[in-house]
Design a protein that fits this description.
mainly alpha, three-stranded antiparallel β-sheet, 10 helices, 46% helix, 7% strand, globular
Length: 184
């Protein structure tokens, strides 16, 4: 099969919603199609989306980030801003055996007693950092957050997410509830 360069270019422009702008209700879908929006500042990311999506404004992107939580904002080590669909990052953090349906998970089902929430009572997710000599030395030299976290996890610290996943596997809560109460 032979493909001409103009066909490749047309396909890429269409997939990126640059030849024909996407409809305003496809914000998350467009971000996913371009494998995330990358920029130096948020305003630039918002402009990239406005160029690709009909009628999208700064407020729509911010609502997707802060109200709907359908997009997440991440920064790389070089300071570049990345916007990604929350669902993609959520899925990437789920252990393999949960992703491929190798175990049955708790699904909430509401009733009058729980006010249709599917939950009765409360259960906490916890992250406890026990100080040791290595962490103390890192803190004294004002090590970066990443260095401290790496050392803490190397020393056996369980993150909020990991503790929550254990509770999901035990049937005490759902993945949806865990995602709601923890940051991705």
């Amino acid at each position: 099969m032979e493909v001409r360069w103009d066909e490749v270019t047309a396909r890429r422009l269409a997939r990126s919603s640059l030849s024909d702008r996407a409809s305003g209700d496809r914000l998350v879908e467009v971000v996913s199609a371009v494998c995330g929006v990358h920029a130096q500042v948020q305003a630039s990311a918002e402009l990239q989306l406005a160029a690709r999506i009909e009628g999208v404004e700064q407020a729509d992107v911010r609502a997707a980030l802060w109200e709907q939580r359908s997009l997440v904002k991440a920064w790389t080590i070089r300071g570049t801003l990345h916007l990604h669909p929350a669902e993609e990052l959520f899925t990437a953090r789920i252990p393999e055996e949960l992703r491929h349906g190798k175990m049955e998970l708790f699904r909430r089902n509401g009733c009058v007693r729980c006010r249709q929430t599917g939950y009765s009572g409360r259960i906490g997710v916890f992250q406890l950092l026990s100080m040791n000599e290595e962490l103390s030395a890192l803190a004294a030299r004002k090590a970066s957050h990443e260095e401290l976290e790496r050392a803490a996890m190397g020393g056996g610290m369980t993150t909020l997410w990991e503790d929550g996943i254990e509770k999901v596997v035990a049937g005490l809560t759902s993945l949806e509830e865990l995602a709601r109460v923890t940051s991705l």
